[in-house]
Write a structure and sequence with these properties.
Distance between the termini: 38 Å
Strand content: 15-25%
Number of helices: 5
Largest sheet: 4 strands, mixed
Number of domains: 2
Structural class: alpha/beta
Radius of gyration: 15 Å
Oligomer: single chain
Number of strands: 6
CATH superfamily of the largest domain: Winged helix-like DNA-binding domain superfamily/Winged helix DNA-binding domain
CATH class of the largest domain: Mainly Alpha
Helix content: 25-40%
């Protein structure tokens, strides 16, 4: 595993690559995978370029390969999150319905919490049933900022 750090408009970010895919995006308060060695690869450079393009409102869909590690249920949730269109939000209940387990909203919340590649897998696009912004590993302020960025790029307000 290779890890590289960069200062971005949302703070210091670490990206981890393993096996030709991005496996983690770590905020400054996150723990890094223990096996990660500091370095830089072409894929990590491209992922940072795409992240900055997204954060500046110029990119809506990431194209770098992302391979998170998790249970089969988590994988289904993350795949569903990845299909949420830019600037759109769904509720935890809607995600639970989409993965075929209608009463699993709390489990969906836990899968969101354990998403190792936030932003690239857009767990920030999941909100509470009443439209409230609920937990986000990077903090609710960052979640709101990401949603405002997307909505603003589309001409909407949150």
């Amino acid at each position: 595993m290779i890890v590289s750090f960069q200062q971005t408009s949302i703070g210091r970010i670490a990206l981890v690559e393993s096996g030709c895919a991005i496996t983690h995006l770590c905020f400054d308060t996150d723990n890094l995978p223990q096996q990660a060695e500091i370095g830089e690869t072409e894929l990590i450079r491209e992922a940072f370029l795409q992240l900055e393009a997204y954060l500046s409102g110029e990119l809506r869909v990431f194209s770098v390969p992302v391979v998170p590690s998790g249970t089969p249920f988590m994988q289904r949730v993350w795949q569903t999150l990845s299909a949420i269109p830019y600037g759109t939000t769904l509720t935890y209940c809607e995600i639970a319905d989409a993965v075929g387990i209608p009463f699993a909203a709390r489990a969906v919340g836990m899968a969101n919490n354990r998403n190792p590649v936030p932003v690239f897998i857009p767990c920030h696009r999941v909100i509470g049933r009443n439209g409230s912004l609920t937990g986000y590993r990077g903090g609710l302020g960052l979640k709101k900022r990401l949603l405002e960025l997307e909505r603003g790029a589309l001409g909407y307000k949150i």
